[in-house]
Amino acid sequence: MKRYNPSEIEPKWQKIWQNDGRYVADDADTDKDKFYISPMFPYPSGAGMHVGHAFEHAIVDATARFQRAHGKNVLNPMGWDAFGLPAENYAIKTGTPPQVATQQNIANFKQQLARMGSSIDWSREINTTDPEYYKWTQWIFTKLFERGLAYQKESAQWWCPVDKTVLANEQVEGGKCWRCDSVVVKKSMKQWFFKITEYADELLEGLDEIDWPEHIKTAQRNWIGKSMGATIQFDVNEHDEFITVFSTRPDTIFGATFLVLAPEHPLVDSIATKDRRDVVKDYVLAATRKSEIERMSEAKEKTGVFTGAYAHNPATGEPMEVWVADYVLWGYGTGAIMAVPAHDERDYEFATAFDLPIKSVIEKPDDNPSSNYVYSGEGILVNSGAFDGESSSDARENIVAWLEENDRGTQTTTYKMRDWLVSRQRYWGAPIPIIHCASHGAVAVPEADLPVVLPQVDDYAPKGEGGSVLADEKTWVSTTCPTCGEPALRETDTMDGYACSSWYLLRYTDPNNTEQAFSSERVNAWAPVDMYIGGDHAVAHLLYVRFWTRALNDMGLVDFKEPVSRLVYHGYVNANDGTKMSKSKGNVVDPLEIIDQGYGADALKTYLLFMGPVDDDSAWDSNGVAGVYRFLNRVWTLTQEFHNAIKLDELPTDSELRRLTHKTIKRVTLDIHRLSFNTAIAALMELTNDLYKLKTDGFSEEWRDTLKIVSQLLQPVAPHISAEMWQQLHNGDIGETDAITMLDFTQWPTWEESLIQDEEMTIIVQVNGKLRAKLRTPVATPADVILQMAREDVAVAKHLTGEIKKEIYIPGKLVNIVC
RNA sequence: GCGCGGGUGGUGGAAUUGGUAGACACGAGGGACUUAAAAUCCCUUGCCCAUUAAACGGCGUGCGAGUUCGAUUCUCGCUCCGCGCACCA
Question: SS3 for A539?
Answer without folding.
Answer: coil
